[in-house]
Amino acid sequence: MRMVRSLFYLFTLSIPLISCNQLSKNESNYNAEESITLTFSKSIQLDISENFPKLQGNPLFFSDKTGSYFYIQTSNGIGTFDLQKGGKSISYLRLNEVENFRGKHSTGQNHFIPYSKDGFVYFERQNDEIYIFENGKSIQSQKLARIIGDNPKPLSGVLKFAVKPKQLITALNMAEIFAKPPFIYQNQQNTIGVFDQDLQEFDAFLPLPAEYIDKKVNVYDLLFSMDYIQNEDEFMINFPVSDSLIFTRDFKNFDKIAATPKKGFVKMDNRSGIHMGEWKKEYYTDNTFFTSYYDSFRDLYIRHYRKALSESEFELVEQNSFKMFHPKNENFLLFLDREGNHLHTMDVSDFNHLYVHFGKEGMYILNDTELENEDLLTFSLFNIEKN
Predict the structure, then answer these.
(1) Residue among 298, 288, 301, 305 nearest 339 (CA)
(2) What does the alpha-carbon distance between residue 359 and residue 351 come to, in Å, rounded to a whole number?
(3) Is 295 a residue whose pLDDT tops 60?
(4) What three-state secondary structure class fits 320?
(5) Do you find a cis peptide bond into 182, omega within 30 degrees of 0?
(6) Is the pTM here over 0.85, yes or no?
(7) Do residues 154 and 161 make contact, with C-beta atoms less than 8 angstroms apart?
(8) What pLDDT score was predicted for residue 159?
(9) Is 46 within 8 Å of 368 (Cβ atoms)?
(10) Which domain of life is it from (predicted)?
(11) In 3D, which of 306, 331, 305, 329 has the Cα closest to residue 319?
(12) Are 208 and 185 in contact (CB under 8 A)?
C-alpha cells in the first residue's frame, strides 16, 4: 500500500549506499527491446469548485483492488475523489468531526497521508504529534518528544516521505542536522524512522553512508522517497543521485538494481552552496532521479528522472514557472522489471509530473500545469499492456 506526499522547494535524497550489507543485482539492460506499451485511454475531470484549494503540489493517492482514489487537503480536512468512477467526490473528512481527536480543527501546515481508502496518518506540526485516523476516528496518537530522543523529526510535506504497512516508516528531516554551519556531512546519522503500529515505540535505521562524510551539504540531497512492495514485504528506496534503486526488508540488509537511462547518469560534483537558492540551482543543473513508483498491479518498477538544465535554461525556467514546469525541464518515466531491464521510457515533460499514480486501471497523470482554473482538474489515464 502506498502513502504519498509532495514538495515544491525540495525534492528527494541521495545516498550512494551502505557498503557491506549490499547484494548487487545484475547490471541494467539499457538496450532491451521495449516490452510494454502505454496508450491513452481517457480523460478524467474532477470538480473542485466546492471550497477545494489550488493543489500546491500535494499528490495524495491510494489504490486497492476496488478502486483508485485522489485526495485534496483543505484548510479544515481532506476530500476523497474516486478516479475509477470518473473523478467523483465521495467523501470529505473534517477535523472537527474526527472522534477522539484533540488537535486543532485547522490543518495549517499539517499533513494528511492516506494509507487506505479511509485511513490516514496525520502529522500535526505545531504540536509535533502524529495521529492515526481510521473511518473518521482517531485510533492512535503520539507526541514525538516522548519517543524520538535526539533523532530528527519525521520529514513532513515531502513526496512519499512515509509508508505504512504494519509499522509507520518515515524519512527523518536530516536538514535539522546538516543544513547549517559548517554545511559538511560529519557523521553517519540514521535517516529512517520506524514507529510500531501503536506509535508507542520508535527506532532509527539506515545511517548516512560513509561516502557522504566530509562532503558539502545540499539539502536537496537529504530528501528521498520510498514505496512499499506488499507481496515481497520490502521497501524500495530512491536516492536522487544514485544510479541504483535500493530494496530492503529491515533497513539493515540491502539489495539493489541498476535503474538508470545510462551509467553514471547522476553525480554530486557541483555541491558548494549554503543557501536555498544555491542548492536549488545546483540540483536543477545536474541530472537527478526525482522519485520512484511500484506498480503492484503489473509488477513494474518506475523511476522518474530529470535531465540537467544549463545555467541559462535554469534562469529561464525559474523565472517563468515557480513549479519548474517548462518544456526545457525534461522529465521521463523509466519502466523496469525486478532485474532492472528497461521496458519502456515515457516523456512526461508536458504533464504535471508531480502527480503520477498507478492503479488497477493503468497510469494516471495530471494534465494541468498552470493550475489557474481552480474549478476543474483533468487527469489522463493510460493503459499499460505487455507486448
Answers:
(1) 301
(2) 18
(3) yes
(4) helix
(5) yes
(6) yes
(7) yes
(8) 59
(9) no
(10) Bacteria
(11) 329
(12) yes
